[in-house]
Specification:
The complex is a heterodimer of chains A (316) and B (452). Chain A is of the alpha/beta class. Chain A contains ten helices and eight strands. Chain B is globular and about 100 Å long. A 16-stranded antiparallel β-barrel of chain B has the order 1-2-3-4-5-6-7-8-9-10-11-12-13-14-15-16. The chains are: A alpha/beta (316), B alpha+beta (452). The interface between A and B is large, with 77 and 85 residues.
């Protein structure tokens, strides 16, 4: 083995590889006028689309029928994230199992945590279930920063939309008037729909319901439902026979007739509880895109409220 | 109590004066640009609103202060001032833009991890392993606290984050990884500096507790440096590469000091080792994907201190990996399947028994599959076959079956049966090893990302 050759080789390989990378790839960030937005979930994508209109390209990492706690950080998302100018996240550690590595590996300085292109929607929303005492995992997979399913309150949707409007205007000051007009239109339409939703839900105000996971506190608060129990004994812990028996007893005592289940949970336990209690299992969509027909934030509430209404009527 | 009253009065006074100052500045700006009475009214309204917001903020701040002084009054749920504290992970380095809407004071936003402030995310993972059965070739203790890994992760500044993992084993402490990642480099480059598990294949990058099996495949022990693998101090540069449609390509180049267990040794300062890795990934469908990799590594063969010029002895390692994953999105927490193969070729320069220069060409691979049957149970199997780096004519074979139970996301209980047909160097013959391994894993602290 010739000595000179072997000495220089490792560094030469590394530097030439680095050079090849640098040369092969055109610089990202073209002069495209549309703002490229990535969101963690479909609901945020829908809100961003409402405000951004045709000035933005929006895509969500998670699908509407997917459990947002458990998303695979697939490299295919990396390419999209590497080109994004704005990343909108739910926050409150909902995405902690999958988003941090995606953000780091995207090697996109614009969307790193704390950068101007990192938008944490929870900062604009009303958050429920903020733990006050000691937080331990004896409570299950608790969210120490509060319940992250806050988008299921239309008021929060409006607040987040306002935040998005400000952010987009900051990024494209020339289009600020456009975004303001889109926001006004969104607000107006949301308030109209809100009246209908409230009217539809009014007859059922105060009704007791059971949900699978703690996904619905904001929804329940907004529409006057009373969540009295959960199919999961603790957040993130699968149903146990003992807890199920207790829940059945409680539901019979309280006359609970509705079990709200997210589309990504197994229906076996909810169905058996329903059989024992005469209750009905209602699969509600926590996110836009959960079903094909739920194409935006409005249709999300249309769908869920229609389902709930039907179930309330049938069980009474 | 008296002192407290004085303090609160002071606080109130100072905050009121602050509240008076702050909006008057904005008013000065607003008024001249207004012109008409209408705009003036608007500006005034805005001012009143912002003042009201400030007062509400101060009130709650005062209330919180009082409550923290008198814990017996803590029974009522407390409002947390999210907007006045940095976000978790954002740290103070990047000032969160003060929300322009003054309505956003105390009730909106999460608790933001007040207690944590600038501390890194800290986690600890305990890994307890028990072994029963017979293995004369590589015996392990009956019961051992195999590893206790402490992880600390934080954002360092607007340009970088850092990750450190210290593993406390039975024999001492080892910095398994500690590196800074620069996330804001131009041209999409990602630079890591520190000690890290090299990007060589798949299993080499995975920490012990995140493996699909209790042990590492035979081929890791025979050809790729054992449990720690290629884990060394150095630099890593990676970047996405242009790829055909629907493919994702990533290239990584790494240079290390050249010391990795019994694999590489740096006899002189310039005896660096290198690793190159090319990853190709493609989504076959929403729930199925294919992950391919090619890796290369080169460094000076370890264990040649007696040779006259050990720096002339190299080990070249080549690897190819394939992973097929299936995970239906609607039932992601209940069902998944992973099929993974890794192939390794080793060309090791060494001294023969007759003290002459020779190169041993050894090959090894493993093939493994795991299936998540429901939310709590995962089953898996692995086939192992590998030559030995120092003597390629000796080929060890083995297989394993594993059952994992998940009480929750934060603990695992596993049992693994392992068979090995292994070369017993001391007796110069092959022997059979039949073992039963069990493992308890537990996680405390920060919620880490799931391995992919």
């Amino acid at each position: 083995m010739p000595r000179l050759f072997t000495n220089t080789r490792p560094t030469a390989i590394v530097s030439s590889l680095a050079l090849v990378f640098a040369l092969l790839c055109p610089l990202t960030g073209s002069a495209d006028s549309k703002i490229r937005i990535m969101t963690a979930t479909t609901d945020l994508a829908s809100l961003a689309q409402e405000i951004g209109g045709d000035k933005v390209d929006v895509e969500s990492v998670a699908r509407g029928y997917q459990d947002p706690h458990f998303v695979d950080p697939k490299p295919s998302f990396l390419l999209k994230l590497s080109k994004a100018e704005l990343l909108i996240v739910v926050g409150l550690e909902l995405e902690i199992g999958w988003l941090p590595p995606l953000i780091t590996q995207s090697s996109n300085p614009r969307i790193q945590v704390g950068a101007p292109g990192y938008f944490d929607a929870s900062r604009f929303a009303k958050i429920l279930e903020l733990p006050t005492g000691q937080v331990t995992r004896a409570e299950g997979d608790v969210h120490p920063l509060g319940n992250p399913h806050y988008w299921l309150d239309p008021d929060n949707g409006l607040r987040i939309a306002k935040g998005i409007q400000n952010k987009l205007s900051e990024m494209r000051p020339n289009d600020a008037a456009y975004f303001a007009q889109r926001y006004d239109s969104f607000e107006q339409r949301l308030k109209q729909s809100e009246q209908q939703w409230q009217a539809q839900m009014k007859p059922y105000a105060g009704r007791k319901v059971v949900t699978y996971h703690r996904s619905w506190p904001n929804f329940a608060e907004h529409f006057g439902l009373n969540v009295v129990g959960y199919v999961e004994p603790r957040p993130g812990i699968p149903p146990s026979p003992q807890h199920t028996v207790e829940l059945i007893g409680q539901m019979k005592r309280d006359g609970v007739k509705i079990i709200m289940v997210e589309p990504y949970f197994d229906l076996k336990t909810p169905n058996s509880i329903a059989r024992d209690t005469g209750a009905q299992v209602v699969v509600l969509m926590p996110s836009v895109g959960g079903e094909k027909e739920i194409t935006d934030y409005f249709k999300l509430f249309d769908y869920d409220i229609a389902r709930l209404k039907k179930a309330f009527d049938e069980t009474h | 109590m008296k002192r407290f009253a004085v303090l609160s009065v002071l606080l109130l006074f100072s905050s009121v004066s602050h509240a008076q100052n702050a909006p008057s500045d904005s008013a000065k700006n607003a008024v001249p640009s207004a012109g008409t009475d209408d705009a003036r009214m608007k500006a005034l309204e805005e001012q009143v609103r912002s003042l009201a917001g400030e007062v509400a903020l101060l009130r709650s701040e005062l209330k919180e202060f009082r409550e923290s002084k008198s814990p017996e009054q803590l029974s009522s749920p407390q409002l947390l001032l999210a907007s006045t504290h940095p976000q978790p992970g954002t740290l103070a380095s990047v000032p969160a833009p003060a929300a322009p809407q003054t309505t956003q004071t105390q009730t909106f936003g999460g608790a933001s991890g007040n207690a944590k402030l600038l501390n890194p995310d800290i986690s600890l993972i305990g890994d307890f392993i028990g072994t029963a059965g017979r293995n004369n070739v590589s015996p392990s203790p009956s019961l051992q606290m195999h590893e206790t890994e402490v992880g600390m992760q934080a954002i360092i500044d607007p340009y970088a984050r850092a990750d450190a993992f210290l593993s406390f084993g039975e024999t001492g402490v080892n910095v398994e990884e500690a590196y800074i990642t620069f996330t804001s480099l131009p041209a999409g480059l990602l630079l890591k500096v520190g000690k890290m598990r090299a990007d060589f294949g798949k299993v080499n990058t995975i920490h012990n507790h995140a493996l699909s099996f209790i042990d590492r495949p035979l081929v890791t022990n025979n050809l790729v440096g054992g449990e720690d693998g290629i884990d060394d101090a150095g630099l890593s540069l990676s970047r996405f590469l242009p790829a055909p449609k629907n493919w994702f390509l990533e290239g990584t180049a790494q240079v290390f000091r050249g010391d990795s267990d019994d694999l590489f040794t740096a006899y002189r300062r310039q005896d660096l080792s290198v690793v190159g890795h090319l990853r190709a990934y493609r989504d076959l469908s929403e729930s199925t994907n294919l992950d391919l990799g090619l890796s290369y590594s080169r460094g000076n063969s370890a264990g040649l201190q007696t040779a006259s010029n050990p720096s002339a002895f190299f080990t070249n390692l080549y690897a190819a990996d394939t992973t097929l994953r299936w995970r239906p999105l609607r039932r992601a927490i209940y069902h998944s399947f992973l099929f993974r193969n890794e192939f390794f070729w080793s060309a090791r320069d060494q001294l023969s028994l007759a003290n002459a220069f020779q190169t041993q060409h050894a090959f090894g691979f493993y093939s493994s599959a795991e299936y998540r049957a429901n939310r709590r149970w995962t089953i898996g199997g692995r086939f192992d076959r590998s030559g030995r780096a120092t003597n390629a004519s000796l080929t060890d074979t083995g297989f394993s079956g594993i059952l994992t139970y998940w009480p929750s996301e934060f603990s695992q209980i596993r049992g693994q049966y392992r068979y090995g047909h292994l070369w017993d160097t001391s007796n110069d013959r092959f022997t059979n090893a039949n073992e039963f391994l069990f493992q308890f894993l537990f996680v405390m602290g920060a919620h880490g990302a799931h391995p992919f």
